[in-house]
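Review box. Two proteins, two foldings.
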Amino acid sequence: MKLPSERLFSLDLLRGFTMAAMIVVNFPGSDAHVYHPLSHSRWNGLSFTDLIAPFFLFIVGVSIALAYTKRLGTGTPKSGLYGKIVVRALKIFAIGMFLNLLPDFDFTDLRWTGTLHRIAIVFLVCALLFLHTSWKAQAWIGGLTLVLYWLAMTQIPTPGLGRVALEPGQNLAAWVDSKYLPGKMWQGTWDPEGILSTFPSIVTGITGMLAGRLMLTGFTRNEKTNYLMTAGLLSAVAGYFWGLHFPVNENLWTSSFVLVTSGLAALLLGAVYFLVDIQGRTKGTSVGLIFGANAITVYVLADVLALIFYGWRVQGSSLNEHFVSTFTQAGLAPELAGLLYSLLFVGVNFIPAWWLYRNKIFIKL
């Protein structure tokens, strides 16, 4: 496969494989039987699944740096970008709302948050920050946000509880959601994509912008790899030690969670950049490239196709239940049977993604 010189090929691959992983963990063959790495941590801790959302936001940040540097470099005025940024954010948010309404379109029990909603907000804030601040200012804003969030969550007693708490549903972020977040919440009384936790999630996007800025410098390719992976390692280590006092937690999107996951994302991007963009090792990368070319479209397709592959009932059971039951009776562990079905569903989603890519159709919001 010939590498397109005008693009950061490694970023396209990372986006595509992250999307494929998101489908695997979002659509298990059996909710009751899932390998531990393929499910979210119950509270504190970090599993493979917990990495997917922050990796995607990191990728959003890198993409902002690359795309808007190019546009500004061609003479496009900043004023000409504002409307497009806002419209794109609103489109992503609207698609998130559409998916939340599936399949019944019940407006009386509507959730106003979700993965796409958070992506829309992070994109909007980070894109505007990129247009108006230097990378040093972005680093300061990100660091200050993480410190203020840490102080707020660990020093301000939860109203009504009378003490500082970081337990599920009993923390400052949950209290803010219960007071000010409209509509249905994912966990009943609190939401993992709630109001306060959105602030540190924006910092995840900022870390991606900083990585993107590094990739645009005049350093050699090997130097970029070294600096990116060194920064990633330092970030992950710093996040680990911060996590001893402010636990790594995706639901709260803690400051330590931001540093650990952004560090791991930088390490992975650096490794893929070295292998693919520098050494040209592209064998087995087509799946990632195809999924990455229409990532948001694939995300939407997965939710729509799930209505059939997980919602359509035949003789009282859904297709995934029939599949897992059949292979479990044949001797497979139920976790393995469930994983096979989720991989099958990834393959189903790959078909329209491949068709779009083959016909050079790239749906951009």
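Next protein.
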Amino acid sequence: MTGFRSLSAGLRALQPAAFGADPSGERLARIRRSPHFADGAFVNPEGARTRPSGGSALELAKLYFRKEDRARRAPAGTVPVHATTYADLAKPPASGLRLTWMGHSSVLAEIDGHRVLFDPVWGERCSPFDFAGPKRLHPVPLPLAALGPVDVVVISHDHYDHLDLPTIKALAGTDTVFAIPLGVGAHLEHWGVSPDRLRELDWNESTKIGGITLTATPARHFCGRGLRNGQHTLWASWTVAGDEHRIYHSGDTGYFEGFKDIGAEHGPFDATMIQIGAYSEYWPDIHMTPEEGMRAHLDLQGGQPHGVMMPIHWATFNLAPHPWAEPGEWTKDAAEEAGQAVALPRPGAPFEPSGKLPVDPWWRAVSTPIARPWRRPEAADAAPVTKDDLDLDLAGER
């Protein structure tokens, strides 16, 4: 134990700011009063296994280090990023709603005259270190400073591929407001964001900023940025409602029945941004496959095709053993089978959900062929995960 504590202290000394800060004072008291906090940790709406153990962990390690598998987990050529310019975004959307996927889970949503930036990650690595950890597979479409004013930055949870220190530090010098899950404010204050710019919400709590209402809704995931993970920061999906439009961002989540409740309470949505990448049978409860993502989209819409689904959380970082292009290919297949409208933009290409949708499978030109059929077998049984299993890998979420 002494050696482990020494290692933890040494790693924190290397780059202490990236680990953030633990909640304390009134923030911690509020966490402990939350109906979703029990036995010293936030709990999921349904139980969730977060990582493999024993033999499964060994199998996963073999997948990661096998040369042919490593090649499939990255693009085979240069990702065709749209060179987004200020001119692309300067003219208001004709319909009142426009989405620009910046890669991974980062999305600029322009909704009814307001600009909302979800999970902005402009850093080169999703890691506490600038020399190790998952590195970007394509550049950001435009510099953060060229994005223009943002009314609200929404953070889904505090994993490195969603809450990025250099990006937050850059945004700390602006006037933007941050909508964040309960507990995450401790990190942002530690990094220089003024407390009066934080709107820190528990599940099913809402805040109104200008003419839009943002609600933190449940998700099935976990949290943490360091060697130990006390589950003291919440994870969330988010709904945003304007005068004319409604949108949903899933953050990271496994499939769960609560999508139906979210849709009944806050939907239907003109567009949903759904996590469909970094899935694996080794952690089936915390990330969705494309088929599960499509099921979640339909649940959110009351079971009927409605609005547009845009896949997120793929193509930008290598966080799982599946082939790089598989999430895009399988989402396209799942949408066709469901008869559902899906938007598949290149990173940086703005589109309006009510207009012509980007549906070209652009990834095929820069990836190896997908060998596996899109319908995956049921997740393999795994050993139960203990509280100690919730510790994060330092190099990123996975």
